[in-house]
Amino acid sequence: MRPAAVHSGSRRPRPRRGPRIGAGPRPLWGGVPPSSAPVGNPDEEDLITDEPLPLLLIAGSRLAGQPGVSAAELDPLVRRLVRLDPGVDGDGHAQRAFAGLLPHLWEGGWQPADLVHVVRRRTSQRGARLIAAVIRADASGRRAADGAPAAWLAQLDDGCSTVAGWWRHEGVEAASGWRDVLRVLGLVRDLPRLEMLLPPPSTWAAGRRADTLLGAGADPKMLARIRALLAKAESTEFPEEAEALTGKAQSLMARHTIDAAVLGQRPGATPTAVLARRLHLDDPHVDAKAAVVQAVGSANGVRVVLQPAFGMATLVGAAGDLDLVELLVTSLLLQATRAMAAVTRHGGARVRSASFRRGFLYSFAQRIGERLDGARDQATADAAATYGAALVPVLAERERAVEAAVSELFPRLRRRNGPTVDPAGWHAGRRAADDADLGGGPRPLAAGR
Fold first, then answer.
1. I need a surface site. Which of 43, 151, 350, 373 has the fewest CB within 10 A?
2. What would the 3-class secondary structure string for 143-195 be?
3. This model's pTM is above 0.85
4. Which of 181-185, 194-198, 424-428 has the lowest mean pLDDT?
5. What are the Cα distances from residue 128, in Å, to 131, 132, 323?
6. CA–CA separation, 288 vs 364, rounded Å?
7. pLDDT over threshold 60, residue 12
8. Nearest-CA neighbor of 155 among 170, 181, 135?
9. In terms of Cα–Cα distance, which of 412, 29, 37, 68 is closest to 191?
């Protein structure tokens, strides 16, 4: 979804129109239609007993799941829950309600980090810690350590592992605790189906990991070198030094990708697996941040599909390429945020506006994409001197494999036109991208800088 061109605005002084994104590759939008049935809804009859608390949880979660429901509207149910269980799930009813939802979500393509991300985005940080505690309890009960893929286990952090344990750790009043329970239940019970990217728990064999299905990532030593270069680039106060460091990292990334593609085609080599992985993007300006992801992915052989309702981008490519793209995306988003803060720190109201920031990020993404494409072309030319005519069909084969995987995962993709953005933010973002830590080495300073 990288922006690719700038169109001039209207000639009339008012209203002023900014540059429009979208003359080049348009963003890909995936996910499921809003009408899709939720996957997080078990048979609620299983939760009903002769006790009133499970009935209150069902009614409260249904109410909390409706758009725009206020705390005041939830409070009558919350007060009844507090009277019945002032210890917030001392009897484990909420824990059992969540436990009934999770298997449906796992079978619907959701992963632990996806749930924590969407709960944080739609409710609160405290709500995210609640669903994390529930997920940890689920993982413990399933003996996930024996059979889950490493990528799944990496999404499980340390901490409380029950609803009641979460509430005690948070130290909030009972009403706040129950209100969070209802809001999180109301959200996750209505989540739609996602694309299945990792084997769900129902397919895990006890004592046998599913990692063999997931392919090998980037070489750990190479990742460590690139990570160290980017960390130094992000920490230095000298733009020329930072640019040289990240330029070296980008050169290593590009050549590593090409070498891996060639080696994967040799007789006896293990075929390169094409995988998909979700990247979570935080508000605000998720679509503009996704444009940065698209720029990095496009230059490194990775396709990017945005799912805007959840603030997620799905990356599709070779396992090693996904690792490298994630590293560079993280670094560039940090640089963009830092550059935008420097521009807006001493600016007026317009410079601090949301439209300026959005335009800044879109422009930053487009200019970064141009620079990345140039670095990729140079790396490809250098590699051609080593591999000769064999290089072109190898790279073409990898591209076809990635395209086939995208088509299989997202059969109903659509493209969206780029937005009109603030012109001042656009030009400021482009200047920041020119200064970003990326390229083949230090560029000479322009006159007057």
1. 43
2. CHHHHCCHHHHCCCCCCCCCHHHHHHHHCCCHHHHHHHHHHHHHHHCCCCCCC
3. no
4. 424-428
5. 5, 6, 25
6. 9
7. no
8. 135
9. 37
d(CA 245, CA 232): 7
CA 98 vs CA 89, 103, 185, 187: distances in Å: 12, 9, 7, 11
Find out whether 438 and 250 touch, Cβ atoms under 8 Å. Answer: yes
CB-CB neighbours of 404 under 10 Å = 12
What single string gives the DSSP state of each residue in 31-72? S--TTSPPSS---GGGG--SSHHHHHHHHHHHHHTSTT--HH
The mean per-residue pLDDT over the stretch 236-241 comes to 71
Compute the distance between CA of residue 214 and CA of residue 199 in angstroms, rounded to an integer.
Answer: 9
273 CB-near residues (< 8 Å, 6+ apart): 214, 215, 216, 318, 319
Total residues belonging to the chain: 449
Pairing type for strands 312-318 and 274-280 reads antiparallel
Give the per-residue pLDDT at 363: 85
| Residue 261 dihedral angles phi and psi, to the nearest 5° | -65, -40
Q: Take residue 422 and report the two structure tokens written for it.
A: 């603030």
At residue 365, what is the residue type? A
Would you place residue 159 in the very low, low, confident or very high pLDDT band (cuts 50, 70, 90)? confident
Closest CA to 401 of 317, 320, 297, 323: 317
